[in-house]
Design a protein that fits this description.
By secondary structure, this protein is of the alpha+beta class. The protein has one domain: Jelly Rolls (Sandwich), CATH 2.60.120. It is about 20% helix and about 35% strand. It is built from four helices and ten strands. Strands 1, 2, 3, 5, 6, 7, 8 and 9 form an eight-stranded antiparallel β-sheet that branches. A two-stranded antiparallel ribbon has the order 4-10. β5 and β6 form a beta hairpin. The N and C termini lie far apart (about 40 Å). It comes from Crenichthys baileyi.
Amino acid sequence: MGLEAWYMDGSDEDQRKPHRLNPNQPVTLDELKKLGVLYWKLNADTYESDPELEKIRKDQGYSYMDIITIQRDSLPNYEEKLKMFYEEHLHLDDEIRYILDGQAYFDVRDKEDRWIRIAMEKGDLITLPAGIYHRFTLDETDYTKAMRLFVGEPVWKAYNRPADDFDIRQNYVALLQGSSD
């Protein structure tokens, strides 16, 4: 079973619930790719010596790496952090995350500004393009361990929506529309 993604319902119930529409409206990897979201499935048990991960890092230029564990006991200000990650935002660089353990959700906006929820589990590596509006949350297991990858020095700056004035956002929107002005 590959990556699972779906359109979200509009309910403001706990962000950690799946929020599927009824009936469920799945989103394919191809549809995600059209939004610039890239995905790999790797063996997270061998991440320290995985040649496949090495190759992706080399091909994509992901020189920086660190590991973050997100759970109540190990992350200071857990609830605030979770709320902050769930604020809709964009970055001026790609966001690359590799789930080494546990589960989590990334939500991204489609062309019509609808939320797509991407269910991430152990072994999932995802790249969100610079300029895409997105947010992150744990699921109801309240635990994930993720590798954060970066091209060059890490920049953790998030720009909460609205951030439409950034060139990177306008470039991204133009890319979506397939326009090349």
